[in-house]
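ok new one. same drill as before - structure tokens go in, u give me an amino acid for every spot. 224 of them this time. try not to just spam alanines like last time pls lmao
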């Protein structure tokens, strides 16, 4: 079995149960809210909610953000299998995870991400999925950056066979002609700055609006 596609909770090494507490809060939010858009992933997703651009572009769309820092594909898969999809039927789910799967190969990471996507497609049959490609990492070219690029290539090929899923790769704009990433875009050469998030959010927001916009035929269809 692909180790990156095995659902696992995060081990409580520190002893304060923070990860499980966040998961339990998300499960409770599913009971209290009716989101049109659900964001799921790791710190890249979690930190986006702290940006001003989140309030400007995404909050008005009736959203929930289920991002947890440090999560791998295994952790996100476990969370989705254990209550974070209960009682909600979002129109769109945005998935952004995989860069923390250090111990897995590119093929394994892509397989783990696709396991998450397939779960969403199977469980939320009328929901569209936006799969975010992994961003490059490290100031200069390195093996992890190469692996993330290979994951994106594999994901794009896999997603092309799933009609409800769109792949969004925003990685090209962050690597400059000399192969470097600037700290003004990623303050630690992994996580985005405010300006970096604004660049990602603008493109993502445009795609979300396209998907959320009802067609005339859908508006005329009576509710069952």
């Amino acid at each position: 079995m692909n180790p990156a596609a095995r659902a696992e909770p995060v081990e409580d090494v520190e002893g304060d149960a923070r990860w499980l507490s966040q998961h339990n809060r998300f499960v409770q939010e599913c009971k209290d809210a009716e989101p049109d858009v659900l964001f799921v992933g790791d710190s890249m997703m979690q930190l986006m909610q702290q940006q001003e651009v989140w309030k400007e572009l995404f909050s008005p769309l009736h959203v929930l953000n289920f991002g947890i820092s440090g999560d791998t594909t295994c952790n996100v898969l476990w969370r989705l299998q254990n209550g974070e999809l209960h009682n909600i039927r979002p129109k769109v789910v945005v998935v952004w995870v995989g860069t923390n799967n250090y111990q897995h190969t590119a093929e394994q990471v892509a397989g783990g991400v696709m396991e998450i996507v397939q779960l969403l497609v199977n469980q939320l049959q009328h929901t569209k999925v936006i799969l975010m490609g992994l961003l490059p990492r490290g100031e200069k070219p390195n093996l992890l950056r190469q692996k993330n690029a290979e994951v994106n290539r594999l994901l794009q090929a896999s997603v092309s066979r799933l009609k409800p899923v769109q792949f969004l790769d925003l990685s090209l704009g962050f690597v400059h002609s000399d192969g470097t990433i600037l700290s003004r875009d990623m303050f630690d050469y992994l996580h985005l700055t405010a300006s970096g998030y604004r660049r990602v959010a603008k493109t993502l927001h445009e795609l979300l609006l396209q998907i959320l916009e009802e067609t005339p035929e859908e508006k005329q269809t009576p509710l069952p």
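The chain has one domain: 3-210. and btw The CA atoms of residues 72 and 101 lie 5 Å apart.
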